[in-house]
Design a protein that fits this description.
Blueprint lengths: L33 H10 L27 H7 L10 H14 L3 E5 L2 H12 L5 E4 L4 H9 L3 E4 L20 H11 L7 E4 L12 H14 L3 E4 L3 H11 L8 H9 L4 E5 L10 E5 L2 H14 L10 H14 L2 H20 L12 E5 H4 L9 H13 L4 E3 L1 H4 L15 E5 L7 H16 L7 E5 L10 E4 L1
Parallel strand pairs: 2-3, 4-5, 5-6
Antiparallel strand pairs: 1-7, 6-7, 8-10, 9-10, 11-12
Helix pairs in contact: 1-14, 2-11, 3-11, 4-5, 4-10, 8-9, 12-16, 14-16
The structure holds ligand PLI.
């Protein structure tokens, strides 16, 4: 019995969790040499979005479309009904969204931004305001292109990387009420609510907050549309942190949360565990009719919306899988494992750790690099140079420019995101990532910032180019 390590087993007071799956197929990773990394990053002009995936070792660029499908989902792909109209897979998807998210009318879209586009065009009258719990890049752009003006009404704690508020995604109801009082309810297109909040570090919204938001909006006749992209992860935090929800299943929490909203859009590439796809769902028939009419212009017929039948089937199965308590616990648990390693080493990260990623606080990491020299972009470049790990910027580059003044938007959060794909990497990969971050943290004083040499008009973070100062 001497062979049993002292730290393992319940008799020693420790119980670990493990992923509720085992690996059936593997994809080899390539370790990229230091010389290759230098030349690949130069060729990509210091933008990790412009790297070739073949030049990446561990890819933490995004959790979007990068997850591993289950054997059930792959089997479902073989059941694709590729009829142009009325595919049986559409009806499976429609039933899954109705059952688990609770909305009445469902439209598939090619991915999340397709749904954002349609909803923005149908639900915003030019000149209207769209209050929301922090902007998201594609969401705000579609709202602006439809003539709307986004207004941030997230709680103040969301902008403070060190605040331990358990629900940093909450709407500041006082600010929203003041906005409605000042502008009048007619000027509000709808409240754009995201659970979790990506740009704040994957931070959740509480059930108490969404219920109070519903009451406030009902008082003024304002609609609430939900970005449900990472709603299963949001539900996990409610179960973990909110009184009364510890024994409520994730699926029931999602259903209850969604019942406080008038509709939702979804990037199925995240929570719903598929490599491509999305959906849009609303309760109001008149709005649905408008959306259903517009979808044939931009996405495809209302029973496929830009998706293959097989992909709709995989998403219907992914919806069921992503709401299982064991799955979501291990998914968020892996993100937290990485966050705890970095916290133990005093690396500045957004606290508490969010649902889909660990966000490095680039301002605190590189206090000597001013925001106009892109500290978060620099950090992503340094990480790649050190180990071939790919992260992404979520700071001033992502925030873009003010459409009226043309100036940079300078967000208070200047973050580099280590985004964890779902069911893809192991705990050992997380160790390797943490060690690389620690290495560049230890030599942070020598690091210089970047200058932007090329700036595209829309969503500049995807294609901007930089050089070293
Ligand atoms: O990438 P799409 O078009 O399927 O979804 C757009 C989108 C909408 N809402 C939220 C909260 C997102 O995170 C989102 C896409 N996110 C990406 C691509 C990401 O890397 O976070």
């Amino acid at each position: 019995m001497d062979a049993i390590p002292q730290t393992m087993g319940p008799q020693f007071g420790r119980r670990s969790w493990a992923e509720p799956w085992k690996i059936k197929m593997v994809e080899p990773l390539r370790r990229v040499t230091a010389a290759e990394r230098v030349s690949a990053l130069r060729a990509a002009d210091y933008n990790t979005f412009l790297l070739k995936s073949d030049d990446v070792y561990i890819d933490l660029l995004t959790d979007s479309g990068t997850g591993a499908m289950s054997d059930r989902q792959w089997a479902g792909m073989m059941l694709g009904d590729e009829a142009y109209a009325g595919s049986r897979n559409f009806y499976r998807l429609e039933a899954a969204v109705r059952t688990h998210y609770g909305y009445a009318h469902i439209l598939p879209t090619h991915q999340g931004r397709g749904a954002e586009h349609l909803l923005s065009r149908c639900a915003i009258t030019p000149g209207q305001l769209v209050p929301g719990n922090m902007y998201f890049t594609t969401t705000r752009l579609h709202q602006e292109l439809a003539g709307g003006v986004f207004v941030d009404v997230i709680v103040e704690d969301a902008h403070d990387t060190t605040s331990l508020h358990p629900f940093k995604g909450n709407v500041d109801l006082g600010r929203l009420e003041a906005l409605i009082a000042k502008e009048g309810a007619n000027r509000i297109a709808y409240v754009s609510l995201a659970g979790t909040v990506n740009m704040a570090g994957g931070q959740p919204v509480s059930m108490e907050n969404v219920k109070a938001l519903r009451v406030l909006c009902d008082r003024h006749g304002v609609r609430i549309f939900l970005d449900a992209t990472r709603m299963a992860e949001n539900a996990y935090f409610i179960q973990e942190r909110e009184p009364g929800y510890a024994d409520v299943p994730i699926a029931a929490i999602v259903r209850e949360f969604c019942s406080c909203t008038d509709g939702a859009w979804m990037s199925g590439k995240k929570d719903n565990l598929v490599n491509i796809g999305g959906w849009l769902a609303v309760n109001d028939w008149t709005l649905y009719e408008e959306l259903r009419n517009l979808i044939v212009v931009y996405e495809g017929l209302h029973t496929y919306g830009g998706m293959a039948g097989r992909d709709m089937e995989a998403m219907a199965i992914g919806i069921e899988e992503c709401l299982q308590d064991d799955y979501i616990r291990s998914r968020v648990g892996q993100v937290h494992y990485l966050g705890e390693l970095l916290t133990d080493w005093n690396v500045p990260i957004v606290q508490p750790v969010g649902g889909h990623a660990v966000f490095l606080d680039a301002r605190a990491f590189y206090p000597h690099i001013p925001q106009h020299e892109f500290p978060a972009q620099t950090l992503a470049a340094e990480l790649y140079l050190d180990s071939g790990i790919r992260a992404m910027e979520r700071g001033v580059v992502s925030a873009g420019r003010n459409p009226e003044t043309g100036d940079h938007n300078f967000p208070r959060l200047e973050l580099t995101r280590l985004t964890i794909p779902r069911r893809v990497y192991t705990q050992a990969h997380m160790d390797v990532v943490a060690e690389s971050v620690k290495t560049i943290f230890d030599r942070r004083a020598e690091t210089r910032g970047l200058r932007m040499t090329y700036e595209p008009r829309y969503l500049r973070f995807f294609q901007a180019r930089f050089e070293r100062l």
